[in-house]
């Protein structure tokens, strides 16, 4: 029912009820029209407009406004409603709406915080697992380095004595069978020596002595150091190095160790024959060294773990599984990165990226690899 303007409310409750009923009829109708039309009706059609902001309690209007209530005061005046009472009522109404909005936002905020805490807990557990694994590997590394050091001395003696016996056998004209036996023993000793070297490198890493280094020189020195080793005699090398390639900021000795490990890894993937290609480039102030082989390739599921310590897909007798892990550690120590691409039965490419030396930086101290 609609009361006439001549009727007077008996008390505050009646007046409040009347105002709320009118607000519901006018304000909600206006809001519905605004939502449908997506724009405000021209103000000239409403000679008296009352706007009440919906803002957070204890906040200034400029800091946090959720919206506003718009009331056609001209129509309210016809119903005998005092603007002061209307403003007070609308203010309470707006405060209630703001409280509901605030609670909804707080619920969303708490839900977001809960998700963030869950994610942080997950990351914390991963970090703890990684730290535990790193601690275990460090312990294994120290033990391995100690054992390798003890093995290295007698191994050197055995290798030297075998070389002497082989030389005497050749002078005495011993049977070819005996020479083959010496070669077999020397091959096994060489394999043990590589394992010992890997264990020492992993267990006792050396600090990088970074300096401006000629990548071209280190590549040629590394190939010269291994090309006469067993298994490399049937490998073809293709080298492509631009004459104007800048120097790299890297420890020359460690770069040589990186390249030799990658060359040995490539040879093991080509036990009978094949080719190794090395090419370099300078892109975005980084020296890129790509080493490709035509070997058996690496399965895609193994690529994420090939740099993990002790990981290998080869026969356990072929090594420790530390070669690529050492390569990765040395490259990181020299502020570089390494990428790998591989296709089964076609080959593998490792790409090393190292910082470029500035023209003013000193030349490297020459070191024998």
Structural notes for this entry:
With 369 residues, this protein is an alpha+beta fold. Among the domains are: 137-203; 211-355, 2-Layer Sandwich (Heat Shock Protein 90). It is built from seven helices and nine strands; from the N terminus they run H-E-E-H-H-H-E-H-E-E-H-E-E-H-E-E. The strands form three sheets. The chain has a five-stranded mixed beta sheet, with helices on one face. The chain has a two-stranded antiparallel sheet with strand order 1-2. A hairpin with a 2-residue loop joins strand 6 and strand 7 (286-293). Helix 3 (83-171) packs antiparallel against helix 4 and helix 6 (252-268) runs antiparallel to helix 7 (323-333). The longest helix has 89 residues, at 83-171. 19% of the residues are buried.
Short description:
This protein is an alpha+beta fold and about 375 residues long. It has 7 helices and 9 strands, in the order αββαααβαββαββαββ. The radius of gyration is 40 Å and the shape is elongated.
Q: Low-confidence parts lasting 5 or more residues at pLDDT below 50?
A: 1-9, 34-44, 364-369
**What is the alpha-carbon Rg in Å?**
40 Å
Helix content: 40-55%
> Based on DSSP secondary structure assignment, what is the total number of beta strands?
9
Q: Can you tell me the CATH class of the domain at 211-355?
A: Alpha Beta
Shape, per Cα inertia axes: elongated
**Overall mean confidence score, pLDDT:** 76
Going by helix content, strand content and strand pairing, the class is: alpha+beta
* Biggest beta sheet attributes: 5 strands, mixed
């Amino acid at each position: 029912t609609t009361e006439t303007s001549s009727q007077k409310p008996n008390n505050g409750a009646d007046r409040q009820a009347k105002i709320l009923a009118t607000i519901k009829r006018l304000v909600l109708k206006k809001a519905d029209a605004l939502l449908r039309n997506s724009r405000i009706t021209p103000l000239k059609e409403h000679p008296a407009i009352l706007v009440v902001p919906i803002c957070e309690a204890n906040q200034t209007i400029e800091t946090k406004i959720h919206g506003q209530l718009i009331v056609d005061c001209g129509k309210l005046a016809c119903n005998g409603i005092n603007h002061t009472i209307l403003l007070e009522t609308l203010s309470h109404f707006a405060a209630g709406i703001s409280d509901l909005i605030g609670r909804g936002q707080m619920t969303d905020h708490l839900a977001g915080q809960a998700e963030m805490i869950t994610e942080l807990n997950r990351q914390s557990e991963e970090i703890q697992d990684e730290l535990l694994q790193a601690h275990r590997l460090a312990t294994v590394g120290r033990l391995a380095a100690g054992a390798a050091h003890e093995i290295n001395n007698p191994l050197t003696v055995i290798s030297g004595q075998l070389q002497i016996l082989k030389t005497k056998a050749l002078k005495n004209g011993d049977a070819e069978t005996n020479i083959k036996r010496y070669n077999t023993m020397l091959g096994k000793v060489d394999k043990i020596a590589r394992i010992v070297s890997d264990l020492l490198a992993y267990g006792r890493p050396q600090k990088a002595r970074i300096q401006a280094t000629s990548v071209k020189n280190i590549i040629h020195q590394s190939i010269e150091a291994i090309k006469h080793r067993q298994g490399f005699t049937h490998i073809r090398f293709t080298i492509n190095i631009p004459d104007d390639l800048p120097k790299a900021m890297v420890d020359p000795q460690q770069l040589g160790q990186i390249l030799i490990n990658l060359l040995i890894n490539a040879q093991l993937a080509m036990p009978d024959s094949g080719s190794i290609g090395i090419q370099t480039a300078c892109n975005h102030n980084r020296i890129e060294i790509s080493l490709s082989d035509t070997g058996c390739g690496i399965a895609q599921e193994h690529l994420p773990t090939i740099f993990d310590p002790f990981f290998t897909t080869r026969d356990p007798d072929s090594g420790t599984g530390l070669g690529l892990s050492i390569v990765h550690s040395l490259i990181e120590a020299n502020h570089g990165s390494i990428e790998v691409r591989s296709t089964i039965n076609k080959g593998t490419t490792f790409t090393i990226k190292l910082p470029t030396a500035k023209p003013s930086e000193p030349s490297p101290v020459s070191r024998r690899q």
